[in-house]
């Protein structure tokens, strides 16, 4: 399901972000491509359409989105910062062969641990690494 630009503008406004053309394009890309992209991947895909877009703008826009809790940062790979638009409780699986990152559904029970009782959680990161189904069958 693709989102309309008025929906994109609404979501940005709801988080107190002024919906400029470039911001909207970047958020729209994240919503329509659930691939946990890096700045480089966003840059490569969007520059043919928006030649004035710079990596710095993308980087600053993503930082703003993170700050306003519109998206999350994933640091599953030490060498790459990736961005995730999916907000629900989930973990990530990184395939060491094709380097894709998959969303992994998690059971809410994982947060009900007694050991966490007196802690306030601001963020959580669940990472798994290995080989995905497709790469395993090769
Ligand atoms: Zn794979
Ligand atoms: Zn994710």
Annotation keywords:
138 residues, alpha+beta, Arc Repressor Mutant, subunit A, Dna Ligase, domain 1, three-stranded mixed sheet, two-stranded antiparallel ribbon, 19% strand, binds zinc ion
H-E order? HHHHEEEEEH
Class computed from helices, strands and strand pairing: alpha+beta
Average per-residue pLDDT, rounded, comes to 92
Question: Could you estimate the helical fraction of the residues in percent?
Answer: 25-40%
Q: Could you give the order of strands across the largest sheet? A: 4-3-5
| Biggest β-sheet strands, sense, barrel | 3 strands, mixed
Computed over alpha carbons, the radius of gyration is 17 Å
How many structural domains are formed by the residues? 2
CATH-derived topology of the largest domain: Arc Repressor Mutant, subunit A
Q: Judging by the overall fold, what is the CATH architecture of the largest domain?
A: Orthogonal Bundle
Explain this structure to me?
This protein is globular. It is an alpha+beta fold and 138 residues long. Helices cover 34% and strands 19% of the residues. The model has no long low-confidence stretch (mean pLDDT 92). The chain has five helices and five strands. The strands form two sheets. Strands 4-3-5 form a three-stranded mixed sheet, with no helix packed on it.
Topology (elements, then pairings):
Layout: H1 5-14, H2 21-32, H3 39-46, H4 55-67, E1 72-77, E2 80-84, E3 90-95, E4 101-105, E5 127-130, H5 133-136
Parallel strand pairs: 3-5
Antiparallel strand pairs: 1-2, 3-4
Helix pairs in contact: 3-4
Structure summary:
This protein is an alpha+beta fold. Helices cover 34% and strands 19% of the residues. The chain has helices spanning 5-14, 21-32, 39-46, 55-67, 133-136, and strands spanning 72-77, 80-84, 90-95, 101-105, 127-130.
């Amino acid at each position: 399901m693709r989102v309309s630009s008025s929906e994109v503008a609404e979501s940005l406004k709801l988080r107190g972000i002024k919906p400029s053309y470039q911001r909207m394009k970047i958020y729209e890309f994240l919503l329509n491509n659930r691939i946990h992209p890096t700045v480089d991947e966003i840059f490569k895909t969007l520059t043919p359409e928006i030649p004035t877009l710079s990596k710095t703008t993308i980087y600053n826009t993503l930082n703003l989105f993170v700050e306003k809790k519109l998206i999350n940062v994933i640091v599953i790979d030490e060498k790459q910062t990736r961005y995730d638009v999916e907000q629900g409780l989930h973990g990530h699986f990184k395939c060491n062969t094709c380097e894709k990152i998959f969303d992994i559904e998690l059971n809410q029970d994982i947060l009900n641990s007694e050991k966490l009782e007196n802690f306030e959680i601001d963020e959580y990161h669940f990472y798994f690494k290995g080989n995905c189904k497709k790469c395993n069958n090769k």
